[in-house]
Design brief:
78% of the residues lie in helices and 0% in strands. It is mainly α. It has two domains: 45 residues; 137 residues. The chain is elongated and about 90 Å long.
């Protein structure tokens, strides 16, 4: 029985198939390595972010101050955007403040003082409105800005997983004090029968 010799044309297809399989295996291996690298990179980034958050908010007193700074900054940013930045309290003005600078009482006081500082300008811009209408519209405008800033600040703190404990208590106390101070302003301008 005679066996025909193998020619070059008969051997080539199996080599092509083998090289295609090798290339496919190499691609799969590269994809697996890339996926492992991406997972490792993501894990390292998450750990680094966690370390940053811990460093910022881990020390109880300093962490609370930083959280209150975020809360204050977000609220004032929205107020300034709504009413103008002529009376803005900038970080430079806040440097070197007393230890209790970020207490709920003082933070609420600064926010309300900054917001109410625009009332005279609002009155001048709306001279045809009665005072009760000016007060109502002004308070509605600044309350919306305060609500937006507070919401964004609490989202940031919640996203950092630090919006709990004393940070949450301080933020909520600040928001409540803001409401009380705005109600007192309304009452002082319009009397208790018009207060809400």
């Amino acid at each position: 029985m005679a066996v025909s010799p193998i020619t070059g044309s008969q051997a080539t297809p199996s080599r092509r198939v083998d090289s295609q399989q090798v290339q496919a295996n190499e691609k799969t291996e590269q994809q697996v390595q890339q996926a492992q690298f991406t997972a490792s990179s993501t894990e390292l980034k998450a750990r680094a972010n966690q370390n940053i958050v811990q460093a910022m908010f881990g020390n109880n007193g300093q962490g609370d101050d930083k959280a209150m700074n975020i809360l204050y900054s977000e609220i004032m940013e929205k107020l300034n955007a709504e009413l103008g930045e002529d009376h803005a309290i900038t970080p430079e003005k806040m440097a070197g403040q007393a230890d209790d600078y970020w207490s709920p009482e003082k933070t609420a006081g600064r926010i309300v003082e900054g917001a109410l500082g625009f009332f005279e300008t609002f009155q001048k811009q709306n001279p045809n409105m009665a005072e009760d209408e000016q007060v109502a519209q002004f308070l509605s405008t600044i309350t919306k800005a305060i609500d937006k800033g507070y919401g964004e600040a609490t989202q940031v703190l919640d996203g950092l997983k630090v919006f709990d404990g004393s940070i949450k208590d301080n933020a909520e106390a600040t928001r409540s004090l803001i409401d009380d101070k705005l109600a007192a302003f309304r009452e002082a301008r319009l009397g208790s029968e018009n207060s809400v």
